[in-house]
From TrEMBL:
A GO CC term attached to the entry: plasma membrane
Protein name (Swiss-Prot/TrEMBL): Purine-cytosine permease
Keyword Transmembrane helix: yes
UniProtKB keywords: Membrane, Transmembrane, Transmembrane helix
Region feature (Disordered): 1-21
A Gene Ontology molecular function term of the record: cytosine transmembrane transporter activity
Keyword Transmembrane in annotation: yes
Residue ranges crossing the lipid bilayer per the database entry: 64-88, 109-132, 152-170, 182-202, 227-246, 267-287, 310-331, 352-372, 378-399, 420-436, 442-461
Amino acid sequence: MTKHNIENEQENSASGEFEREPVPKSKLKSWKSFLGMYAGEHAAGTEFMIGPLFLTAGVSAFDLIIGLLMGNLLAVLSWRFLTAHIAVKRRLTLYYQLERIAGKKLVTFYNLANGFLFCFLAGAMVTVSATAVGVPFDMEMPKLTDTVPNSLTWVIIVLLIGLVISIIAARGYETVSKAANWMSPIIVTGFIACGIVALSQLNVGSLEDFWNIWGEGTDPFPGQLKFGFWHVVIWSWFANAAMHVGMSDLSVFRYAKHESSGWTTAAGMYVGHYMAWIAAALLYAVYLKSPEAQTFLGNGEAPPVAPGPLAHNAIGIFGIIVVILAGWTTANPTIYRAGLAFQAIMPKLSTAKVTFIAGMIATVAGLFPAFAMKLLGFVALYGFILAPFGAIIVFEHFFAKRFALVEDYAAKERIGFNKAVFWSWAISFGVFYFISLYFDVFLSFVTLPAWILCGILFLVFSKRLQRGYTVENGS
């Protein structure tokens, strides 16, 4: 079959999402498509939660401003030189590429974990949007300690928002990308406006005044972990660990014409994970001066973090709109990724159907505020769980030939469970999760060591497993 015919066959794929084949050249996209998507996704719902949560962790000015600068740079470099590089070389989804290495049975467990964790993250963003929709209804907002729905109004609003988000995500990458491109300028403008208004409300007239908002830091709020400089650097680097070093965004960058499109993630990191986090933190700083917040603190409780009211207090109705759209632009691509994970388990179902199912799971998760209110810890956990699987792909890509290993071993040997992959992940996860629990080490601090150990063990175990194997006798 000629290359032309192969591409035509791929283009006629029933779903149009190329879940189990390389993306054809005719479907590749320019860097502009990724710029809008990353700016939209990362100047989004999570930012309205994470910025204030940094304040509840008692960060200082230096820790926040310089720490975020460094951590976000490390994240951009990870996307550019690992994720985008491998994606353009192979043009496969994470799920199919990992299946070819690890085997279908093993990847089924990974896909379930991946899909559900993404659904929970998307659910947190449904929660964020719901806090904005609830403002006109004078809805009681969830507190930092809340875990279950607190009213029927909350349930109805979350269900309606989740339904709309699920429909958009189920329409595929094209729709997700267009939605992000359309919404992102509005959201970015909203974050800038919120930051400017908050500075005015805080009576900031100089750089010194701005710096003194955080000063030398404070004790963490009740029930929150104290964040120092390295907490901020490492956490912001691995806030998206599953996407970059965990290789989830292979599914996104497989559409890129050139691997240099990986640089577009800087729009997300510095517009979203820098400017937007700081702007959202400023909104919360304003709220902390209110009598309501002081009452909470006086009672030994952490004041609630509800993005809708915070943005509404700063810029009115536009703030409500921005928070709603911000939740959508994070939830949409996250549900799309979850749908791809579930579709790999149920290939007979269309991507649209499984993505809609993922959206409904996310909606149910959104009913429970705990996923949003504990976002710093949850993000650290899901990155720690999923990132080491990305090391399997990275280490095979860069070191397989050097160590005379067979690439895509499970596919060539037709095995469903690659023990080298399983034990590499299990040992690295077990060792460093134990260290985190036993020695009370912040989980993000052990994500990189776990990732490296998993990759090294994969090379060692694969060498042993493939002893005596040659491509000729396995093909």
